[in-house]
Amino acid sequence: MAYDEDLANRLREQLSGASYTEKKMFGGLAFLIGGNMSVAASGQGGLLVRIDPGEYDALLKEPGAGPMDMGRGPMRGWLRVDPDVLTDEETLRAWVTRGVSYAQSLPAKK
After folding, report:
1. Which of 11, 17, 67, 108 is the most exposed place for a label (fewest CB within 10 A)?
2. Residue 103: count of CB within 10 angstroms of its CB
């Protein structure tokens, strides 16, 4: 399955004004801040969000949030957000803000 082009365009709108790069990764389209992935339109549908691992358990309780598993079990610094809860811009903005904030807190990659 290819990533959702509409979601990718909505992510671009959410990130307008930010300095980011796009990179195709894991069958999806990732948006990197300072070389660190912040969010991605997943190739499996929905949104991948990079988060502070310390907030993992609390954010996992948010509607539509689930663990991201790349075949080795859940990754505590990442969440998958179901596309059904991303229909309104406020919800999408909240997830994008979380991903961008965490990516900005990391050292930039060269």
Report:
1. 17
2. 23
